[in-house]
């Protein structure tokens, strides 16, 4: 994992925006928020995101085509991460546990499938929004 002190200026700014966000952000939303910091093109954001994802600091939410900062340091070696995404407020809660992924890893091994990663996304309503309804 790349250390925070080795991030480029652009990578650090993208990561800080994602950490401060209350919900996942698209690359274009990040670009809009970072224009005053010198970002001019989507490629600048995508390059930073690519490195941050590879370094384990950011996750891409496939169903939203958006990005979130990793909620807490954990071992990404097991390649299994799950998210609960609220359709009302947009909050995305992250969960990662090697034990949860073991049965799926076993199944993949049995089928001979070679997976690079797995992102499980639950879509629905968070407890806060459910209580407000």
CATH superfamily of the largest domain: Winged helix-like DNA-binding domain superfamily/Winged helix DNA-binding domain
- Ends distance: 42 Å
Helix content: 25-40%
Give the second-level CATH assignment, the architecture of the largest domain.
Orthogonal Bundle
Helix/strand layout:
Layout: H1 9-20, H2 27-34, H3 42-54, E1 58-61, E2 66-69, E3 80-86, E4 92-95, H4 98-111, E5 118-124, H5 127-132
From the structure above, extract its key features.
133 residues; Dna Ligase, domain 1; 5 strands; alpha+beta; two-stranded antiparallel sheet; Arc Repressor Mutant, subunit A
What does this structure look like?
It is a single chain. With 133 residues, the chain is α+β, with helices and mostly antiparallel strands. The protein has two domains: 4-69, Winged helix-like DNA-binding domain superfamily/Winged helix DNA-binding domain (Arc Repressor Mutant, subunit A, Orthogonal Bundle); 76-132, Ferric-uptake regulator, C-terminal dimerisarion domain (Dna Ligase, domain 1). Helices cover 40% and strands 20% of the residues. The chain has five helices and five strands, in the order αααββββαβα. It has helices spanning 9-20, 27-34, 42-54, 98-111, 127-132; strands spanning 58-61, 66-69, 80-86, 92-95, 118-124. The strands form two sheets. It has a three-stranded mixed sheet, with helices on one face. A two-stranded antiparallel ribbon has the order 1-2. The chain is globular and about 50 Å long. The chain starts with 8 loop residues before the first helix and ends with a helix.
